[in-house]
Every structure is written in C-alpha cells, then in structure tokens.
Design brief:
Blueprint: E1 2-5, E2 11-14, E3 19-24, E4 28-32, E5 37-40, H1 44-65, H2 72-78, H3 80-83
Antiparallel strand pairs: 1-2, 3-4, 4-5
C-alpha cells in the first residue's frame, strides 16, 4: 500500500498491487484493476518511486522473517514510515 494525496488534500492509501496504469493527463491519473480511477497530486515519477520502495520493503521483510515468521507483522508496521 502507498500513501498518496488527492486534489482536495485528503490522504488516500492505494493498494500498489491493484495499479494497472499511471498517466500524466496533465495531472496524475491512476487506473486500478478494479476499474476505479484516482487523480492525485504526486507526479508519475513519485508514484512509481513509492511503488518501488513499497515492493522493496515487502520483499526485504519476506526474506528476513518469512511469510510465517513471528515478527513478520511487526516488521511491516515498523517499516510503514519508510514508504508513506
């Protein structure tokens, strides 16, 4: 999940796994696999960077703790600040 900003300055958390495409039209428009579209203040490059950072965090936590490791939930919560 990545934290983005809507045009009314409200924060929105988007499931990065559901992002189908990101367009600059001239604003940033995110299309989700669910058919929903979200227009955000962040640039296309910022959205891509946040997705990459999020996926690296998830990948790192899986290697360190495993999917069934007893610290896996704490690791995701502890790393939340790094990708929001």
């Amino acid at each position: 999940m990545i934290k983005l900003t809507l045009y009314n300055d409200a924060d929105v958390i988007v499931n990065a796994d559901l992002i189908e495409s990101v367009e600059k039209t001239p604003d940033t428009l995110i299309s989700l696999t669910t058919g929903k579209k979200v227009m955000v203040k962040e640039s296309v490059e910022d959205v891509i960077s946040k997705v990459i950072t999020y996926r690296r965090l998830i990948s790192k936590n899986k290697r360190m703790f495993g999917m069934r490791g007893k610290h896996s939930i704490n690791a995701v919560v502890k790393g939340f600040d790094k990708w929001t």
